[in-house]
Design goal:
Elements: E1 4-8, H1 11-21, E2 25-29, E3 36-37, E4 44-45, E5 51-52, E6 54-55, H2 61-73, E7 76-79, H3 85-97, E8 105-107, H4 115-123, H5 130-157, H6 168-184, E9 189-197, E10 204-207, H7 215-225, E11 230-242, H8 250-261, H9 265-277, H10 293-307, H11 345-360, E12 366-377, E13 383-393, H12 409-412, E14 428-429, E15 431-440, H13 449-458, H14 467-476, E16 480-485, E17 488-498, E18 501-511, E19 514-520, H15 522-534, H16 536-539, H17 543-555, H18 561-582, E20 590-594, E21 601-607, E22 610-615, E23 628-631, H19 643-648, E24 654-659, E25 662-669, E26 672-677, E27 680-683, H20 695-712, E28 713-716, E29 723-728, E30 731-736, E31 739-742, H21 754-762, H22 775-778, H23 781-795
The chain binds one DNA strand of 25 nucleotides through strand 3, helix 3, helix 5, strand 22 and strand 23.
DNA sequence: CAGTGAGCGAGCTTCCGCTTGACTT
């Protein structure tokens, strides 16, 4: 029996540490927090100084009972959870829950998993820091109060099951605000002048720093340049250098993996988790850019042996992030001499990225020589500028170049990383060609998952462990969608001066196409506006920063945590109550105008089934005539839809023809356009416009769907045509009307009888939700509930 | 899923931060 029990948060960490400490230590993991506030209303006793009621969640019971047993047998228990607010609280919860004794418990901390760091920590134990624990409690309680008081307001005033919180609501706000900036943005056109001098390999580009907003001015410029003399008026060469970026934190890893590998933040974290568990990288949820001494030495050795002494440069990075808690190292390879690892291709690619970034961070800077030539024009007072860059020493660029968000590519592309031919001052240049191209100013870029994480981190909102879940939450709630959207064709003008003649052309480009960007939904916008109107303090971008400051004061013992909560809660709760009493239901209603033919009012708003258009006033006692309704389509928004687009929607559903004696209709459902025929449904491929589906096309699609379904079919039964055995993505299953039942591994799908299928279906838990109106829906409970489940999973 | 947009109205939803597996139609 080991004399010492040491508890850390992560099992992978436990394994490593156990190796360092030998027989006297048993090292176990708590798997993060072991207790949480109960889910019920009485979790926090506000009247009694915010006393909390904690419980061990079901999935942690086993961990806790094992730790309890080991703690009893050990002579000394070492609480080694992370050194930050949450880690301190974990230690405290362990102390309380395991029933530990002061005399036989020690609290230790380390920031890196290396043998010397652990041994040093064991030599310098301390007690649990209750100030830090209190700061965590304040954080936890505040988040619960905000989330569990605000969400129900939304259920009443907007829609059931919605949510609001300190972190997610700001994330949604960022996206809604950005979308409105983009909608508001007025693009301005201006002509950009580019000249090409010289021929063949000696050719180079020069630009006019100014742009012309009028075509006449641009044309005049080109005309003036016809036959003019171009001389190099000045030539300046300056050394320049570039330094490597710091090694990865969670947030920068997510950004780079998104830009370079196209991973979603969730994917990045899944792959990183695997790399961590297989011992290839250090911990992946960190806000620190720090590397341990051991790591710095290993990196140095690797760089010198692989690239030579002059490529190494010892660097220490400091976090720029005020809210960083730095309980871990930066993300780095465990062994720098492993340039690659075993694993699937996504693991290999992410590892390579991490390895390069960490190695590069300890390498010399890259050196350049930047040349700027100013070119005078005999007929004009403006000057053209040509930029060239020559790399003198590659340094860290030998292994790694950080990429940038695609914000400002337009202006940067030309002149970057280009070489100029040998030039001398006063040299006369031969103009090849000069063009004036109409360019448009660009609206701010929409957020990607990763750039949203970056922004949240800058605002100090959220933590490395919550970035990915937050992004998922706002999508699961339907506040935000990650989508591909088609761009629009735009015309632009190009004037080209060549061989003393000016050619005018009209060209087209595709603009505004987006892939994998975050768009607010109407419900997201309505919820956001509601929160901004009634709870501006909470969704303020500085709210987290200001409460964080107070948590820090609590952690330093300068402030009493319950006093802080009282100060926050009293006015907040009053606001909640008055909002419940006075606020109207939020529907985002907007009047578009009147119908051009019948003069009826056209308005849009969100309803139970999402955003829709209404034509005509709602029916009342005087007004018997019912209004017409139509749902908005994907990508349309009540904020931006026009009358024309709204009226288009009433052209569907539409009968497109007949097949086998039954009509075929095209309509738009929750998952997009579809054809219905004889109670069967076929989704319409994206490239077909639902408004002009032909009878032939429809028949073809119905037959294609039938063929595909037939391929999936393993067997059917005479007893009930509704029951089928099918081959699904995860193996065979039984379709029982609308209920899907997995076939257990011990049953052969080919020999299943009808009775066996029925028995399997009956064995399905019937706990699923009842219909909305009890009685009416209870006629077919099995059909409704799983159908809903299916939809929820698909959305993921 | 699927042409609705109300309303009888039980009992449910929900937060943020620590951690991994279990599970997926």
């Amino acid at each position: 029996m080991a004399k010492n029990l040491l508890i850390v948060e992560s099992p992978a960490k436990a394994k490593t540490i156990e190796g360092y400490l030998g027989k006297d230590f048993t090292v176990k993991s708590s798997y993060g927090h072991i207790r949480d506030l109960v889910k019920s209303e009485d979790a926090i006793d506000i009247a009694n100084n915010f006393t909390q009621k904690y419980e061990v969640p079901a999935d942690k019971k086993q961990v806790v009972s094992e730790l309890k047993k080991l703690a009893k047998e050990a002579e000394m228990v070492w609480l080694a959870s992370d050194e930050d607010r949450e880690g301190e609280a974990i230690s405290w919860h362990l102390f309380e829950t395991l029933g530990l004794k002061d005399a036989t418990t020690k609290r230790i901390v380390f920031h890196e998993i290396t043998k010397p760091a652990i041994l040093k920590a064991i030599d310098t134990p301390r007690k649990i820091d209750y100030n830090l624990v209190n700061a965590q409690q304040a954080r936890r309680v505040l988040d619960r109060l905000v989330g569990f008081e605000l969400s129900p307001v939304l259920w009443k005033k907007v829609k059931p099951s919605l949510s609001a919180g300190r972190v997610q609501s700001v994330a949604v706000r960022l996206i809604v605000d950005r979308e409105r900036e983009i909608n508001k943005f007025k693009s301005e056109a201006a002509f950009k002048i580019v000249a090409i001098f010289g021929k063949g390999k000696e050719a180079f580009k020069a630009e006019l720093p100014e742009r012309f907003s009028q075509q006449e001015d641009a044309e005049k410029f080109l005309t003036d340049c016809m036959g003019a003399d171009f001389d190099i008026r000045s030539l300046e060469t300056k050394p320049a250098k570039r330094s490597p970026a710091a090694p990865f934190t969670t947030s920068t890893l997510q950004q780079e993996a998104s830009r370079k590998l196209g991973y979603s933040v969730a994917r990045t974290m899944q792959v990183a988790q695997k790399l961590y568990e297989s011992g290839n990288i250090t911990y992946m949820r960190t806000d620190s850019v720090n590397l341990s001494e051991t790591a710095l030495n290993a990196a140095q050795q690797e760089i010198i042996s692989a690239y030579g002494e002059k490529y190494h440069h010892h660097r220490k990075y400091k976090t720029k992030n005020a809210s960083a808690q730095e309980a871990h190292e930066a993300i780095r390879p465990t062994y720098f001499n492993n340039h690659t690892i075993d694993g699937d291709s996504s693991e290999k690619r992410l590892y390579e990225l991490i390895w390069k970034r960490a190695i590069a961070s300890q390498m010399s800077e890259a050196q350049f020589e930047k040349t700027t030539a100013k070119i005078s024009i005999s007929s004009r007072k403006e000057e053209l500028t040509a930029n060239g860059e020559v790399m003198k020493f590659d340094g860290f660029l030998k292994v790694y170049l950080e990429s940038a968000d695609d914000d400002e590519e337009d202006t940067q592309q030309d002149g970057e990383n280009t070489m100029l031919p040998p030039l001398t001052k006063g040299q006369r240049l031969a103009l090849q060609e000069m063009s004036a191209t109409e360019r448009f100013s660009r609206p701010p870029a929409r957020y990607t998952e990763a750039s949203l994480v970056k922004k949240l981190e800058e605002l100090g909102i959220g933590r490395p462990s919550t970035y990915a879940p937050t992004i998922s939450t706002i999508q699961n709630r339907g506040y935000v969608v990650k989508e591909e959207r088609e761009g629009k064709i735009r015309n632009f003008r190009v004037l080209t001066l060549k061989a003393d003649a000016i050619v005018k052309e009209n060209k087209t480009e595709n603009t505004g196409a987006e892939r994998g960007k975050l768009f607010p939904t109407d419900i997201g916008a309505v919820v956001n506006d509601f929160l901004v109107q009634y709870f501006n303090d909470i969704v303020d971008f500085n709210f987290t920063a200001s409460v964080e400051k107070q948590f820090d004061e609590i952690a330093q013992g300068l402030k009493e945590w319950t006093a802080m909560l009282h100060d926050f809660y009293n006015p907040f709760h009053k606001e909640v109550q008055s909002t419940i009493e006075t606020a109207d239901k939020a529907t985002g209603e907007r009047e578009l105008g009147v119908h051009p033919e019948n003069g009826k009012k056209i308005s849009v708003r969100i309803g139970r089934y999402g955003p829709f258009v209404q034509v005509g006033d709602s029916a009342t006692e005087e007004n018997e005539e019912k209004p017409l309704y139509a749902s908005l389509r994907n990508g349309q928004s009540i904020e931006t839809i026009s009358i024309e687009e709204a009226l288009e929607l009433f052209k569907l559903p539409k009968v497109v023809g007949e097949y086998e004696g039954k009509v075929m209709k095209v309509a738009i459902g929750r998952f997009g356009p579809y054809i219905s025929h004889n109670s069967a449904f076929v989704s319409l491929p994206k490239e077909i416009d639902p408004l002009d589906v032909t009878e032939e096309q429809a028949i073809e699609l119905i037959n294609a769907k039938r063929k595909k379904d037939a391929e999936k079919l393993i067997k059917s039964f005479d007893e009930d045509p509704e029951v089928k055995v099918l081959n699904g993505r995860w193996g065979p299953y039984i379709e029982f009307g609308k209920l899907n039942v997995k076939i257990p591994k011990d049953k052969d799908p080919l020999t299943l009888t009808y009775e066996e299928c029925k028995a399997l279906a009956d064995a399905m838990p019937k706990d699923a939700k009842k219909g909305r109106f009890g009685k009416a829906a209870s006629a077919k409970p099995a059909a409704k509930a799983p159908a809903k489940k299916k939809a929820a999973v698909k959305k993921k």
